[in-house]
Each structure stands twice: as structure tokens, then as C-alpha cells.
Amino acid sequence: AQTVTQSQPEMSVQEAETVTLSCTYDTSESDYYLFWYKQPPSRQMILVIRQEAYKQQNATENRFSVNFQKAAKSFSLKISDSQLGDAAMYFCALVVGGSRLTFGEGTQLTVNP
Amino acid sequence: SAVISQKPSRDICQRGTSLTIQCQVDSQVTMMFWYRQQPGQSLTLIATANQGSEATYESGFVIDKFPISRPNLTFSTLTVSNMSPEDSSIYLCSVEAGGGETQYFGPGTRLLVL
After folding, report:
1. Binning pLDDT at 50, 70 and 90, where does residue A95 land?
2. Residue from the list A33, A37, A46 with its beta carbon closest to the beta carbon of B101
3. Is B33 in the A-facing interface, judged by CB distances under 8 Å?
4. CA distance A89 to A67
């Protein structure tokens, strides 16, 4: 079975600053995918970034980047130049081939002007 | 990626009634998923719906309570049957698209049961 843990229920950041959201996971498989999803107040789940476990290079998408540490089973999300629109609940998620997506409990991010 | 729509976007229902939620995707997909998100919580998978076969339900979810249809590769429905206030949640459908087992989500259906 897979587990995903987000130890920060809430985080806050000043506009234009950088914030890092933490995520750890557990799986016995060597091939899997990791994701960060954003859920604003509209409740739409929006894919932020994806990381393939077999790739050593950390994924980046504009202001969003990850620090993927496979040995430590850690997958943190860094948001640079934070904007008011980044305020949302962020979910870390894991999928192992053919199985269901396992979500963490989420981190509520507040962006202060 | 995929563009997904859900109907209705929200509803208020009386206990004991049933509601059918529709999920439409703009391209043909093999796997569709239904999730429930209870207030203040993370997402929980209800079932996986593949076209041409019976849906596969997760532990704690049964077909009598959450019947699912998957008539073609772009459409699915989830029915919440004999509703109680505990069924008040957001229900989301998702599809696997774009490779890498990536799931894209619909906008969700907010259900309140009185």
C-alpha cells in the first residue's frame, strides 16, 4: 500500500516571496509518479506539476519546481515569486502503475499582500 | 490534457432521494474515476470506471449506494442513492490522459443533503 503525508496543514507567504510545501511518501515500488495539485476555493483540482520517479531531474513549471529526493521519499514543492492567485489548498499525490491515486491531507497556503 | 465537465455543479437534495451526476470529457479515454471529498478532507476514490466493464469499487463503497455507468469512452455517470446528510460532499470525476498516469479533474459537484 502507498501512503502520502503532508505535515504542514497550513502555510503562509508574503506576496513575491518563495515558499516550500513538504510531502513525504511511502511505496515499495521503484516506478511511480508524483503530483502536486492545487485546489482553489472553486474546488477545481488543477494539476500543478508532475514528476516521474525514474527521472533524476527535478520537474519545473514556470514558478513551480519540485525537490525530488527518491532515497528519502521526499517530494517538496517550491513556489517562487508567490502571487495572490496561488492561495489554495495544495495536495501531494502518488500513483503506482495501474493503481489508484493516493492523496495527502493537503496544505492550505495563504498569500499575504 | 483533457477538458472535463460535470453536471450539476451543485444541488441540494432531501434525504432518501437519489442524484445522478454526469461527467463528460472532450476526448476518448479508457479510464475514468469518481472521487468524494468530504468537508475539510482530502479526496477519496469511490470507483474506477472502464468502458465495457463493471466499475471497480474501493473498500467502503458499494454498487447499490453508488451505481456507475460508463456507456462510452467520453461519458460516465455516478448516482448517489438513498442519500443521507453524511453524503454531503463534493463529488469529482477525473480521467487519465496525457501519459504518465496523469489524472485531470472535472470541476466537481457540490452536494448538500438535508
Report:
1. very high
2. A33
3. yes
4. 19
What pLDDT digit, counting tens, does each position of B59-84 carry? 999 999 999 999 999 999 999 999 99
Amino acid at A18: T
Please state the domain extents for chain B: 4-9+16-107
Range of the domain at A18: 3-112
Question: Which CATH number is A29's domain given?
Answer: 2.60.40.10
pLDDT digits (tens, 9 = 90+) for A32-62: 999 999 999 999 999 999 999 999 899 999 9
In the structure grid, which three cell numbers stand for residue B107, read together?
470541476
Among A43, A51, A108, the strongest candidate for a mutation testing the B interface, having the largest count of B CBs within 10 A, is A43
Return the CATH number of the domain spanning residue range B4-9+16-107: 2.60.40.10
Q: And the C-alpha cell for B21?
A: 451526476
